[in-house]
Specification:
This protein is an all-alpha fold. 74% of the residues lie in helices and 0% in strands.
């Protein structure tokens, strides 16, 4: 897995804010660093990151654990090696 993605996932696992606002600010900062470090991004990665960031910033259910699980799942899918190997796979019906 990409080292930058691993760093983000490790941060997410160890992040311990109880206030959703503080959680949101810290995670957004780390998400922006991840975006900068992953460049160049393909179109799928750009759209996924935009959607993830929008969910983080505008979701109001205040459930940190749900958001943490959602972010971990979505960010793990950004791994360039994983995307590259999936796009190189032959098309099958």
């Amino acid at each position: 897995m990409n080292a930058d993605i691993e760093v983000f996932l490790e941060f997410l696992k160890n992040e311990d804010d109880l206030d959703y606002g503080d959680f949101k600010r810290e995670v957004d900062l780390h998400l922006m660093r991840l975006i900068e470090n992953l460049r160049p991004l393909n179109r799928e990665q750009q759209l996924r990151l935009a959607r993830v960031r929008e969910e983080l910033l505008w979701m109001y259910n205040d459930d940190i654990e749900d958001m943490r699980a959602y972010l971990a799942d979505e960010v793990a899918r950004l791994d360039p090696e994983r995307v590259r190997s999936a796009s190189d796979a032959p098309f099958q019906l």
